[in-house]
Design a protein that fits this description.
Layout (H helix, E strand, L loop, with lengths): L11 H38 L5 H19 L64 E2 L1 E4 L12 E7 L18 E5 L5 E2 L13 E2 L2 E2 L3 E5 L10 H4 E6 L3 E6 L15 E10 L4 E9 L8 E9 L6 E5 L11 E4 L9 E6 L9 E5 L9 E7 L2 E9 L5 E3 L5 E4 L6 E10 L5 E9 L4 E8 L1
Parallel strand pairs: 1-13, 15-24
Antiparallel strand pairs: 2-3, 3-11, 4-10, 4-12, 5-11, 6-7, 8-11, 9-10, 12-13, 14-16, 16-22, 17-18, 18-19, 19-23, 20-22, 21-22, 23-24
Helix pairs in contact: 1-2
Length: 446
């Protein structure tokens, strides 16, 4: 029977080694015993037939041989007790998940993966069997907010999005939060609270999108700029202790897909907090969103980066009602009902203007590479379409500077369109910036 290194008990190597050492000592003892017995016989012969002058020497030698013979030819002697097994390594509390796509952002030339599209997603850490409270812990992903470039940069105000452990497909249900129940997010003490701006609900006084003079957060159904709400009427947001943010439902928030799929994301706009130095930081989420309001504990790793990187995101705010433009449907050979409104920042955190999308033709690095993101004649990124052949992504004009939704910071706005091929099926579009991040959208053609 073959064993893998993971299936062999930790005491077995010590036992095998002890048996091997015992065999070696037994063989050595037997050989040495034969040697001493031969010497003993020779000594007897010399004592019997040799001269009297050797008698004293012979007697001494006999005694010596008998002592050595007993020592060498006896049983192996007691085998040293096997060392105590090493203590089990400490179990990871919840197995930190690699930050979504962060590993793919490292390449400075954009060729992060083999096709220049995406780098390897950070490996998911091994999940501990049980969470700190004895309930199996869940893993979530934490990413920079889509409305600014520096929400996860060291020394900047803290702003990020929590993607809960549910499908973002609007046809799939998210989390429900009953009236009076809470969602609690706890930051490590490394995030400094300056106390500068009070916690308020979005839409209340001094907490108006575009001019947020507050510290706040919103619950989302799975796509940006579409808060469940009105937020200040549906839930409160407050600070608990020094570093915990608590949402309390003022009304039942129920999952009713696809138009109201429930809670799938949490956008935290923590202007009074400052990001710590570069590194990975564990964020804890305790939400009363389980059956009958049971507490569900989740953990995620927030990657704080040392400096701003090129950043691309998708906004829903350009269309009335802020519909979901990440998941859409279209007929063969037609465009999606809504275009893609892309927000772009360069490596200095400035609005990236003058960007266009140009088809690549024969210069494609893979079959799915359909276009490049171009700026001043230089490729700054790529566009991929995975799915049946014939689909395209295009734009009619270059990106221009606007104020980003919610935050009001300058950004580049690029309006793009997806046109399906003649073949029905599922399509996935990836927009990738060299040295930066990537985003994806999904289209069902039928």
């Amino acid at each position: 029977m073959w064993f893998s290194h993971e299936s062999v008990p930790r005491w077995m190597p010590a036992l095998l080694l002890g048996n091997a050492l015992r065999g070696e000592r037994r063989a050595a003892g037997q050989a040495h015993g034969r040697f001493t017995r031969n010497m003993f016989r020779r000594s007897i012969l010399r004592l019997v037939f040799g001269s009297h002058k050797h008698l004293s020497i012979g007697i001494f030698f006999i005694v010596l041989v008998m002592v050595l013979g007993v020592a060498c030819s006896g049983d192996d002697g007691a085998l040293g007790a096997a060392g105590a097994p090493g203590a089990s390594g400490s179990q990871g509390v919840d197995g930190a998940k690699g930050s979504a796509g962060e590993a793919g952002q490292a390449g400075s030339d954009g060729s992060d993966g083999s096709d220049g599209r995406t780098g390897s997603t950070g490996a998911t850490g091994a999940q501990g069997a049980t969470g700190p409270t004895g309930i199996s812990a869940r893993l979530v992903s934490l990413v920079n907010a889509p409305v600014l470039a520096n929400g996860t940069v060291a020394g900047a105000p803290t702003e990020f999005v929590i993607n809960l452990d549910v499908s973002m497909d609007p046809a799939m249900p998210g989390k429900s939060l009953l009236k009076g129940n809470t969602i609690k997010i706890t930051l490590p003490d490394d995030f400094a609270d300056t106390g500068s701006l009070a916690f308020k609900g979005v839409g209340s006084e001094d907490c108006v999108p575009g001019n947020l003079q507050c510290t706040t957060g919103v619950l989302l159904p799975g796509w940006p700029q579409h808060p469940i709400g009105p937020p200040f009427k549906m839930y409160d947001i407050n600070l608990s202790g020094s570093n915990s943010i608590v949402f309390t439902a003022l009304e039942d928030i129920l999952a009713d897909p696809p138009s109201a799929p429930g809670i799938k994301q949490i956008h935290l706009i923590l202007k009074r907090f400052t990001n710590p130095g570069p590194g990975q930081y564990a964020i804890k989420i305790e939400s009363e969103t389980g059956p009958n309001g049971a507490v569900e504990t989740s953990w995620g790793q927030l990657h704080i980066i040392p400096e701003i990187r090129p950043f691309i995101s998708l906004t829903s705010a350009m269309n009335p009602g802020t519909p979901n433009t990440i998941y859409q449907s279209a007929a063969p050979g037609t465009s999606t009902p809504f275009g893609y409104d892309l927000l772009l920042w360069n490596a200095q955190g400035e609005a990236s203007t003058g960007v266009t999308i140009e088809a690549v033709g024969t210069d494609a690095v893979t079959a799915s590479h359909v276009a490049n993101l171009m700026q001043a004649g230089v490729s700054i990124g790529r566009v991929f379409v995975d799915g049946p052949e014939g689909a395209s992504v295009s734009t009619e004009s270059a990106s221009v500077e606007i104020n980003a939704p919610i935050t009001g910071v300058p950004t580049g706005h690029l309006a793009a369109a997806f046109t399906a091929g003649a073949t029905p099926g599922d399509y996935m579009v990836t927009f990738k910036l060299f040295g930066g991040n990537s985003i994806q959208t999904f289209i069902t053609v039928q």
